[in-house]
Amino acid sequence: MTARPNIWRWRRCGWIRPFPQDGSGDKVAHEVHQSIQRALSEIRALSRGLAAPDIEALDLEDAIVLAASDRSVPGTHAPELSISGDVTPALSYAEKLCVFRFVQEALSNAARHAKGAKCTVTCASSPDELSVTVADDGPGFDPSDAIKLGTEGGQGLLGLRDRVESTGGRFEIKTAPGAGTTIKMTLFHRQARPR
């Protein structure tokens, strides 16, 4: 036997209210519908972001372009991309995924915390290292607050740093209140890794 909700009791307690009969209910229903549609759009975008694309088949430039386009947020400027050097360095899948997620997360942070700021993504590859830099001209922040768990539960810059360092790379942040933010990752090619 399944328990059935006691609608009468819920209504008496104020948990359920009757639908307004003065015509305002249509407006409320429309607002609720719009809120649900926005929430569904956000959930779908998050779900797409959780699945890693097939970056194994992509070269470095295509992976960066995909990551940057994936994080283009309506109402924000599309990031400027600059890629120099060898775009086909010998990267492991983990390193290529690290670059992809680094660009995604750094641009996502810029969209969240530096709304309307101009962003640039710069990638430079040399025989010894690969560096990827994401910079914005937003409000910046106090760097001593940079590597902490977010109050909303996100890992943000802490997660970025851990991801880069887990591949043997170096993670750097340059920022100050009113001075924009530059986040840089450097991966060292296997023969050039610092000891």
Automatic annotation (TrEMBL):
It comes from the Bacteria. Residues 101-191 form the Histidine kinase domain. CDD domains: HATPase_UhpB-NarQ-NarX-like (cd16917). The keyword Calcium does not apply. It catalyses: ATP + protein L-histidine = ADP + protein N-phospho-L-histidine. InterPro entries: HATPase_C_sf, HATPase_dom, His_kinase_dom, Sensor_HK_TwoCompSys. GO terms for molecular function: protein histidine kinase activity. The keyword Ribonucleoprotein does not apply. It holds the Pfam family HATPase_c. Its EC number is 2.7.13.3. SUPFAM superfamilies: ATPase domain of HSP90 chaperone/DNA topoisomerase II/histidine kinase. GO terms for biological process: phosphorelay signal transduction system. Keywords: Kinase, Transferase, Two-component regulatory system. PANTHER family: NITRATE/NITRITE SENSOR PROTEIN NARX-RELATED, NITRATE_NITRITE SENSOR PROTEIN NARQ. This is histidine kinase. It comes from Ruegeria intermedia.
